[in-house]
Amino acid sequence: MNFIKGLDVKAHEWLSNGPPSTWFRSHFSTKSKCAILVNNPVEADVNTLSTDSWRRIKSLESEPNDSPCLFFNGALHSIAYFQEHGLIILSFDVDDERFRNIMLPQDYLNGHNEVVTSSIERLAVIKGSLALIVFSNYFDAIATKCHIWVMREYGVVESWTKTSVPVHSVKNFYGYTVNGKLLIENANRLVSFDPKSLNENVLAIEAADWMGHTDTANSMDSLVLLDGASVI
C-alpha cells in the first residue's frame, strides 16, 4: 500500500517540522493518485501511487477560508479568497492536475430583504449537483437563516438557484446527508435538520466535547481492494 506509506512519510515530515503553512485540507485517493490541498496560497501535493512519488502544483494567488474540502466531479473543491474576485470556489482536478475557479452566486450574501454581514459558507453535493450552503443573519455568532444554492449545470455560474429557509440558533454546520438533511450544531447539540419540513432531530447529547471541531463526509461501500489486501 504505497500511498499509505507516502502519506505517513509526508505526515511525519509535517509533524516534525511543522505544516507547510497554516492550512491543511482533505485529501482524496483514486486507484492511481492521492491529492492533498495545503498551504497559503493554496497548493496541491499529488502522489502517484505506482511510483510513490510526490509533486507540488501551485495555484494562482489564493487564500483558503476555514471550510473543508469537497470531492466532486473528479476534483477537490474548497472556498478560497482571491484579491481580484473575493471569495470563489477553487477546484483541483485530480486527473489533469489543474486548478480552476468557479464563481459563487453574485448575491449569495443577500437575503430576501436584507444584506448579510456575516455567515458560514460550506460546500456540499445535493442530488448530484454542487451546492453552496450559507447560514446567515448572525446575532451573537448564531445564524437564523439558511440559503441553499445549487449549481444545476456544473461550472455554469448562471445555473445557481437558491432556496432559503429559517433555522433556529445555528452555531456550526457539519454536512449534508444523502437523504437531504443538514447536520448542524444547535444549542450545543448535534441536530439533523430537514430543510423541506423544517423538522429537527437531536443526534448527540448536549455539550459534547467534539462540538465545533468536527467535519463530516459521506461514504459508500466499495468492492475495490487496496494493494496487499485479501478477502477472508
Automatic annotation (TrEMBL):
Coiled coil: none annotated. It comes from Fagus sylvatica (Beechnut). InterPro entries: F-box-assoc_dom_typ3 (IPR013187), F-box-assoc_interact_dom (IPR017451), SCF_F-box_component (IPR050796). This is F-box associated beta-propeller type 3 domain-containing protein. The lineage of its organism: Eukaryota, Viridiplantae, Streptophyta, Embryophyta, Tracheophyta. PANTHER family: BNACNNG10540D PROTEIN, F-BOX PROTEIN CPR30-LIKE. Residues 39-169 form the F-box associated beta-propeller type domain. Pfam families: FBA_3 (PF08268).
